[in-house]
Specification:
By secondary structure, this protein is α/β, with parallel strands linked by helices. It has 13 helices and 14 strands. The protein has an 8-stranded mixed beta sheet, sandwiched between helices. The structure holds glutamic acid. The site of glutamic acid has 12 residues, from loops.
C-alpha cells in the first residue's frame, strides 16, 4: 500500500459518519470558497508503520490527497488546493516566506475566494503565521494549520485539524481577527501562538491563552487580538521586495561575543538577543553589543523564557541610554519576523520600539 493510500485509509474511518450528516447542512446557504495552500510538514507526512508517530518523513503527501482524505470538508466549503511547497518547515527562508505571502495576497484579492487555509510544518508555523498577520491586507480569514502525527499514524491529528481549519476559514466570525492558528481544537492568534512541546498534539500554546475552541465544526470565541494586524498594519507584502537580514543569538552562562560580531560582519541590520530572564545582557559581552548597536545595527532584547518571556524596557538594562529596543512579549523567533519586516526600510531605534509595542 503506498503512503497516500495509507493516509486515506487512516482518515477514512470517519467516512461512516458522513452518512449520518443531515443533508440540510448543505442547504443552509451557499458554501464559502476556501483555498488550501499546502506547504508540507507533518500534516503531509507519512511513516513506515501505523505506530511511527514520531519518526517519519514529513512533506510527502500532495494537497489533493490531503483534501480527499477528509471528505467531510465538502460539507463545510467548496475547497480547492494548491501545492506551494513540499518542505519541512525548518527549510523556510525569507524568500519562501515572501513567495507564500505574495500568493496569499493575490488570492485574498479575488472575489471568488472567501478564506485561506495553509497547511504547514509545525516547527516554524508560528513564524509564517505572524509574518502573514503583519503583511496581508485582508479581513478574510487566513488559518495556518499543522499536525503532530503523520496521517499514517494511529490517532493522527491532521484530519481533524484540517477540518477545523476549513471550518474556521469559512466562518464569518473569523473575519477581521488576523491570521489564526488551529491545532488540537484550539484557536490561537498567530501573533501569540508558539510551539511549546514537540511530542504531543497540544503542541501550541499562547502565553495569554487561546482565542477560542472549535467543537464539532463550530467556533467558540472568548477573546480577540488587540495588537495591530492585517488591515490595520502599516506593512504590506505588495510593497516588500526583500526582508531585512535579522539574526538571533541565544544567551546562556559563559556566553562569548563571537556570534554578535559575526552577524555584524555578515551584514545583519538587527540582532535579536534571546537573553536570559528579562532579556538580560551579561556584563562580559556588554561593551561588544553596545559598540555594535552604536555602529547602527539594532540590538533588540528578547527573552529565552519559553512561555511569557516579557521584556521590560529599562528594567534590568538602560535601553534609553544604550539606544536599544525591547521585543515586549514577542519570543526571539517572532521578534526576528517583526524586525525583518519593519527594517525593510531604515528606522530609528525609537520608531522600531514603537512598532514592537504596537504589533
Ligand atoms: N520538522 C517538520 C516540519 O516542521 C515536521 C514537524 C511538524 O510538522 O510537526 O515541517
Amino acid at each position: 500500500m503506498n503512503n497516500q493510500c495509507m493516509v486515506i485509509r487512516q482518515f477514512s474511518n470517519t467516512l461512516f459518519f458522513l452518512f449520518l450528516v443531515p443533508l440540510s447542512i448543505q442547504a443552509q446557504g451557499e458554501l464559502s470558497n476556501i483555498v488550501i495552500l499546502a506547504t508540507g510538514g507533518t500534516i503531509a507526512g507519512s511513516g513506515a508503520t501505523s505506530t511511527s508517530s514520531a519518526s517519519y518523513e514529513s512533506a510527502t503527501v500532495g494537497v489533493d490527497a490531503l483534501i480527499q482524505a477528509v471528505p467531510e470538508l465538502t460539507e463545510l466549503a467548496n475547497v480547492r488546493g494548491e501545492q506551494v511547497f513540499q518542505i519541512a518547515s525548518q527549510d523556510y527562508t525569507n524568500e519562501r516566506l515572501l513567495q507564500l505571502g505574495r500568493r496569499v495576497s493575490e488570492l485574498v484579492k479575488s472575489d471568488d475566494v472567501d478564506g485561506i487555509v495553509i497547511t504547514h510544518g509545525t516547527d516554524t508555523l508560528e513564524e509564517t503565521g505572524f509574518f502573514l498577520n503583519l503583511v496581508i491586507h485582508t479581513e478574510k480569514p487566513i488559518v495556518v494549520v499543522g499536525a503532530m502525527r503523520p496521517g499514517t499514524a494511529l490517532s493522527a491529528d491532521g484530519a481533524l485539524n484540517l477540518f477545523n481549519a476549513v471550518a474556521l476559514a469559512s466562518s464569518a466570525d473569523s473575519r477581521g481577527k488576523g491570521v489564526l492558528i488551529t491545532l488540537n481544537d484550539e484557536i490561537h492568534t498567530a501573533r501569540d501562538a508558539t510551539k511549546s512541546i514537540n511530542i504531543r498534539p497540544n503542541a501550541f500554546s499562547s502565553p495569554w491563552g487561546p482565542l477560542g475552541m472549535v467543537v464539532e465544526r463550530q467556533a467558540y470565541w472568548f477573546r480577540a487580538p488587540v495588537k495591530r494586524h492585517t488591515v490595520h498594519s502599516e506593512f504590506n507584502i505588495d510593497e516588500i521586495d526583500k526582508l531585512a537580514n535579522v539574526q538571533v543569538v541565544y544567551a546562556h552562562g559563559n556566553l562569548d561575543d563571537t556570534l554578535y560580531k559575526e552577524h555584524q560582519r555578515n551584514g545583519a541590520v538587527a540582532i535579536i538577543h534571546a537573553g536570559t530572564g528579562n532579556g538580560s545582557v551579561s556584563s562580559h559581552i556588554f561593551a561588544t553589543v553596545l559598540g555594535i548597536s552604536q555602529s547602527g545595527v539594532h540590538f533588540i532584547r528578547s527573552s529565552r523564557v519559553m512561555q511569557g518571556g516579557f521584556v521590560l524596557r529599562n528594567g534590568e538594562e538602560d535601553d534609553d541610554a544604550n539606544g536599544w529596543v525591547v521585543s515586549h512579549d514577542l519570543n526571539p523567533q517572532k521578534a526576528r519576523i517583526l524586525a525583518a519586516v519593519a527594517l525593510t526600510q531604515s528606522r530609528s531605534a525609537g520608531d522600531l520600539q514603537r512598532i514592537f509595542w504596537e504589533y
